[in-house]
């Protein structure tokens, strides 16, 4: 009886290997776009309970790995809330608890600040410089202060004609305009703060129940 190659065992070995593999995934295995929408339990609700935003003190106590995971959790939550906001506008209905989006954005902003603090502290320990590229504060010919980052030049600075044309100082007659520019920026800031206070008073007058609720908190 002639010998025939046993193909069944080879294919069985391949199938066993495929069953032993574990594919990398970061989200739950779902078939649709459910993760871009809110929990079905909250559908049709006027308000949804949510916690406070993550503050900087809480985030400083977490490791860098936990901050990385929390960032992507908040990113998914933000995408879901943005989808809910667009869908609410399409149906001409109020978005349930719109303050959730502000809390998520504030938490992501605080995470960014904490990560930047750790990068600056590590850079100070390693290089002694706060900025990623060493440099110094300089003035231009209009008296504006800016950060000048050191660069590598193919020739020394005293032989570089292009570098010599740059002026890192301002003349005495520019000081008057520096004061005027500072005064203009202060007036703009005061005007913006006054408009915000006026808008807040109008909202409190229009929605007194919200004003009482905010004062009680």
Helix content: 55-70%
Instruction: Kindly estimate the percentage of residues that lie in beta strands according to DSSP.
Output: under 5%
SSE order: HHHHEEHHH
Mean pLDDT: 80
Q: Measured on Cα atoms, how large is the radius of gyration?
A: 30 Å
Which strands sit side by side, in order, in the main sheet? 1-2
Number of helices: 7
What shape does the CA trace take?
Answer: extended
Largest sheet: 2 strands, antiparallel
From the N-terminal CA to the C-terminal CA, the straight-line distance is 90 Å
β-strand number: 2
Structural class: mainly alpha
| Weakly predicted, low-confidence segments | 1-25
Give the topology, please.
Elements: H1 7-20, H2 56-60, H3 64-90, H4 99-126, E1 135-139, E2 145-149, H5 161-165, H6 175-206, H7 208-216
Helix pairs in contact: 3-4, 6-7
